[in-house]
Every structure is written in structure tokens, then in C-alpha cells.
Specification:
Length: about 300
């Protein structure tokens, strides 16, 4: 059963969605033809209607439609977890310090049992990061319990067993981080119409294959695909290679953001097999900004 705080966060997400729909309806109204009164009280339109702003993702949807790729389900990651952007960015920025927390949560997610993080040899930086993550997660209703036992020098963590909590901590945080980077570093930095983005869309190819894309951008008319993985992905490499081809994405424009540590030789081998660029978390923002700028500067 969800806690009161959990219900409030869900209600906040619903309000975000309603606000988005209200702005969209307002844009449609502003795009209506202007009317002037006529004799007898009739009114006719005069002058061309101003062009309404394009709905986010509309250009990407049109691109997919041209390739006969159907969107069968779409719930944007921001619509699901937008209230947790700060937490997603914190995890991304402190990943090395909080990996033990994420691993323990994933290991105990189904049982809902408590796990312990030993602080005996923890550095002050690690202690501070784990403490902050636990506080943020508890405030967001993602944990049933988070406590520092000073005498035993451990953190006690008990996961909240709701699907909302489990999905976020075990992987959705990385998708939300990608959304925020694209939104802040790409979409807001260029004129409207230059770049469009679609996130968290379940698609079906003409041959019946289905796949969920984490992010697909259209930089002018060039598609750029981003996939985010928190765990092992070796067995998925052939699938990624096929998906990239079906999406019509050039290998230079296909990014796999990988949290799993990889040696340089392993990364290069996997890049060749997948036909995409594999990026560790610290390199993602710069690599994405650089590639977008290269595409736009190419004319």
C-alpha cells in the first residue's frame, strides 16, 4: 500500500500532466482564426491564423511514421517521474559513492527486507553521499526505512515495494537523467524547430518487432538515438545493432549510456559489435553536446 507521501507525489505528477495539457489547449486556441462581427451578428474569420507552437515530439513522431514505425505506447519519463529530477541528477553525480545503496536496493526489492551498508571504512565523502541519497529517497517515499545506527556504524535501508519506487531506483533514474540533460543542454540551447525529442516510447516496426526507445532526437532532419543501461547489456548488443538500422540512425549518432564499468578495449569491441558509441556516465553530456553541434554546423 502506498504511503501518504507517495500519493502526494503521484498527485503532483498528475498535476504536471494536467498543466501540460492546459498549455497545449491554450496554444490551439491562440492559433484559431481571428473573428470580426458582421451584420446580423454573424462572424467570419479574417487574416491567416498564427502558427501554433509544435507539440514536443511531433517531428520525431512524423519521422517514425514516414518509416512506418508505429508508436504503441508513450508515457514520457518526465510525466512519470518529473518530481524526482533532483534525485536522478544526484545519483548520476555521486554514482561511485552510492553504488552500494543501488545494488542493495535491487537485491532486496522483491522481498522488501532491510539491508545494511557498512560504514566502517567509508570515507567522509561516501558517508555524506549515502546519507543525502537516503534522505532524498525517504522524503520522496521510495524507502520504507532509512536509519543511521551510529553504534554499529551502518545505514539500515528498507525498500518501498511499490512499482513506482522499484522502477525508479533500479533504472528509471538514469532515463530521467538523460531527459534532463537533453532538456537543459540541448533543447533549451537552440532555436525552436532545430531539435525535437521523444522519450520513453514503445514502438513497433513494420515486421512486428517491438522496442522501447529511451530517447530519440531529430537534429534538423538527422535522427540521434540514446539508450541508457544501468546493468549488464552484452546479450542485448545484437538487438541494439538491429534496432539502430531499423531506426535509420548512423553509428556516430547512436549513443549507449552505460553505468557498468568497462575497460577501454572492451568498450571498443562492444562499440564495433553494436554499431553505436558506448559512453560512461562522466562523458555523456560533453559527447552529446559535441555531436549535436557537429550536425548543426555541418549545415
Amino acid at each position: 500500500m502506498e504511503s501518504e507521501k507517495q500519493r502526494l507525489y503521484r498527485r503532483l505528477a498528475d498535476l504536471h500532466h494536467q498543466l501540460s495539457e492546459t498549455y497545449r489547449a491554450l496554444a490551439e486556441l491562440q492559433g484559431a482564426p481571428r473573428k470580426v462581427p458582421q451584420k446580423g451578428g454573424a462572424a467570419v474569420a479574417t487574416g491567416p491564423a498564427p502558427e501554433a507552437p509544435a507539440e514536443p515530439g511531433s517531428r520525431v513522431k512524423a519521422y517514425l511514421a514516414r518509416k512506418k514505425i508505429e508508436i504503441i505506447n508513450h508515457l514520457d519519463i518526465y510525466e512519470e517521474y518529473g518530481e524526482l529530477v533532483e534525485l536522478a541528477n544526484f545519483i548520476a553525480g555521486e554514482l561511485e559513492q552510492v553504488e552500494e545503496f543501488l545494488y542493495g536496493f535491487k537485491r532486496n526489492q522483491e522481498s522488501g527486507g532491510s539491508f545494511f551498508i557498512n560504514l566502517e571504512d567509508a570515507s567522509p565523502e561516501k558517508f555524506a553521499s549515502l546519507s543525502r541519497l537516503g534522505q532524498l529517497a525517504q522524503e520522496a517515499g521510495l524507502l520504507a526505512r532509512f536509519k543511521h545506527l551510529k553504534r554499529d556504524r551502518v545505514f539500515v535501508v528498507q525498500p518501498n515495494r511499490s512499482s513506482y519506487s522499484i522502477n525508479f531506483i533500479t533504472g528509471k533514474w538514469l532515463e530521467l537523467y538523460v531527459w534532463d540533460v537533453v532538456n537543459r543542454k540541448i533543447l533549451r540551447q537552440y532555436p525552436e524547430g532545430e531539435i525535437d525529442g521523444l522519450f520513453s516510447a514503445q514502438i513497433a516496426f513494420p515486421n512486428g518487432d517491438e522496442f522501447e526507445i529511451d530517447a530519440l532526437l531529430l537534429v534538423r532532419d538527422r535522427p540521434l538515438w540514446i539508450e541508457a543501461k544501468t546493468g549488464e547489456f552484452t546479450e542485448k548488443i545484437p538487438r541494439f545493432s538491429e534496432i539502430r538500422k531499423q531506426l535509420g540512425v548512423d553509428p556516430a549518432d547512436a549513443f549507449l549510456l552505460a553505468v557498468q564499468p568497462l575497460s577501454e578495449s572492451s568498450r571498443k569491441a562492444r562499440e564495433k559489435a553494436a554499431g553505436m558509441r558506448i559512453l560512461p556516465l562522466p562523458e555523456f553530456e560533453d559527447a552529446l553536446q559535441t555531436r549535436v553541434a557537429e550536425i548543426l554546423n555541418a549545415g
